[in-house]
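Possible regression after last week's pipeline update?

I re-ran a chain I had predicted before the update to compare outputs. Posting the input and the new output here so someone can diff against the archived version. Not blocking, just want to make sure nothing changed silently.
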Amino acid sequence: MIRLRILAVLVLVGLLAACGGGGGGAAQGGKTFSIDITGDLTLTLSPGDYSANFTKDDTAAPLVAHVLWFGSSQQGRAFTIIFYGEQPPAAGTFQLSDGLNTDAGAVSALLVDNAGESIQTFIPGSGTVTLTQAGPTYSGSFEVTLKGGAFGAGPGAAEQTITVKGTFSGVSAG
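New output (post-update):
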């Protein structure tokens, strides 16, 4: 349960610290991305209403992670891919860690949707993330399955499954 809280805090901090969300429909600073969410929640995240960042987060020290974040504080939604460890990830293909593994080298994903009547949180299920790298700039793709929903909102509300598929390019690690 503590690991779930740490993951949720990382995403919620990102939502609150987001740089304003919107960008008028164009990619910001050369960043492009397209993320489709299907299943029990259906959304598309793309530049304009959403932004992308890749930052080191050591606010929960000694737990250190590099967080690839796609979201908007205005929309109240964020999808993150979390690479645990002191150093940013190298190019490669990564399997999502089972459960809520926060050990160095583990990779996790999380979606928080605060746009509806209750906060929905989806945590790791399975999937892969592929990164390419040119200096501090990352591109890549992913397909992950997450499970969760609106915890405490009634029978079955937290037993949902979503698939998150996407591509991104031009996201600099900072």
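Follow-up from reviewer: compared with the archived run. The beta strands are 32-39, 43-45, 51-60, 63-72, 77-84, 92-95, 107-113, 120-134, 137-149, 160-172. Marking as no regression found.
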